[in-house]
Specification:
The protein is an alpha/beta fold and 354 residues long. It is built from ten helices and 16 strands. The longest helix is centred in the C-terminal third of the chain and has 17 residues. The chain starts with a strand and ends with a strand. 49% of the residues are buried. It binds threonylcarbamoyladenylate and magnesium ion. Threonylcarbamoyladenylate (TXA) binds next to strand 5 and strand 6.
């Protein structure tokens, strides 16, 4: 299949942008697939109400079809059609955080095909804030099912380059738009609104504290952090090995000076064996490392920088054939909790305490 690649820049005249997005929307309406930017990661979109489109998405990603898709909408009122009823707490969260990086799970209505929800009676819904995403969803008819636009198992793409690397030849169109503001770089927070006490199934930029401030008590799915938990994660996708770079990744946690010293001892040993090493560092320690490839995740005071860069780092380590990667650990709190969750998954939960 030939993939059309179209680019949208902030400086493009609005009429030209609309033209392009109406073309992209018509592909979705005909049952095709289009990758599009969002403020979290690029999505691989198809018509959420068309069962064949869901099947095509699973095939393009190489993803098991029991893993449900998120339905993206462009206005809050579109939610009515997708769910059997809207809990009051969901209304509050939609008012507070949409458009934005929050996905809510509710009981689905009959018009949502089981192919879209991976056979579940619930549906995940999100209204993204990226202006290109919003206009594209509108042009596509208002309901776009989209997982992240990576091949299954790879880090989610935060730039068009990596969407093209994974999806060129597999889908109809890629919308490249990398110069938007407000980019987060990690997938949305997922909250299950069907439980009495809403539960966070995947941490993200919208934190548990932010959610609790709006609706009171919230739970967090224990399987997110505990590799040894014998419970199945409530978000089916969270059970799969994810984001993993080709190199072996380990997280190192402890007093900063000890972390740097430990990592340097390890990278020295690897070097003596002729193995290529990499480090993900925050800026107070970044000058202390002796690895071959060092990535600066920015300041711990502004974890959004680390969130923005994390998936690109993981992809770049692959591009640079790094064999052993060490990352400083992050806190299990706030936005750092989302960063740590993705790092733990990428590392297969390998964490060294020093
Ligand atoms: O930020 C995001 O959410 C991005 C962008 C493209 O919007 N999308 C994304 O989709 O991360 P995906 O498919 O990579 O991750 C969706 C997660 C999976 O872990 C899936 O199992 C879970 O959401 N999920 C979807 N529907 C669900 C449902 N009805 N019940 C439980 N988990 C659900
Ligand atoms: Mg994904």
């Amino acid at each position: 299949m030939e993939t059309q690649i179209i680019t949208i820049n902030k400086s493009d005249p609005p009429a030209a942008v609309l033209d392009k997005l109406s073309w992209a929307g018509s592909i979705i309406k005909r049952g095709g697939l289009v990758a599009f930017p969002t403020e979290t990661v690029y999505g691989l979109g198809g018509d959420a109400l068309n069962p064949d489109a869901a099947q095509k998405i699973y095939a393009a990603k190489g993803r098991p079809s029991d893993n449900p898709l998120i339905v993206h909408i462009a206005q809050i009122s579109s939610l009515d059609k997708l769910v059997s009823s809207i809990p009051d707490k969901a209304k509050k969260l939609a008012q507070a955080f949409w458009p934005g990086s929050l996905t809510m799970i509710m009981n689905k209505s009959d018009i949502v095909p089981l192919q879209t929800t991976g056979g579940l009676g619930t549906v995940a819904v999100r209204m993204p804030s990226h202006p290109v995403a919003l206009e594209f969803i509108k042009q596509a008819g208002g309901y776009v099912a989209a997982p992240s636009a990576n091949l299954s198992g790879k880090p989610s793409p935060t730039t068009a380059k990596y969407v093209i690397q994974d999806m060129n030849g597999r889908i109809d169109m890629i919308i490249a738009a990398d110069d938007s503001e407000g980019v987060i770089g990690l997938e949305s927070t997922i909250v299950d609104m069907t439980a009495d006490i809403p539960a966070i199934l995947r941490p993200g930029y919208i934190t548990q504290a932010m959610i609790s401030r709006e609706i009171g008590e919230t739970d967090i799915d224990v399987t997110i952090f505990d590799a040894d938990s014998d419970k199945a994660p409530k978000a089916p996708g969270m059970k799969y090995r994810h984001y993993a770079p080709k190199g072996e990744l380990a997280l190192v946690e402890g007093d900063p000076e000890k972390v740097a010293a430990y990592i340097n001892r390890q990278t020295q040993l690897h070097k003596e064996r002729g193995e290529k090493t990499g480090v993900i560092a925050t800026d107070t320690l970044v000058t202390k490392y002796n690895a071959d490839v060092i990535k600066n995740a920015g300041s711990r005071d502004e974890p959004l920088t680390a969130a923005n860069r994390l998936y690109t780092f993981l992809r770049e380590f692959d591009d640079e054939n790094v064999e052993f990667i060490y990352s400083e650990a992050f806190k299990n709190d706030g936005l750092e909790q989302a960063i740590m969750n993705r790092l733990l998954k990428a590392a297969g939960h390998k964490i060294i305490k020093v």
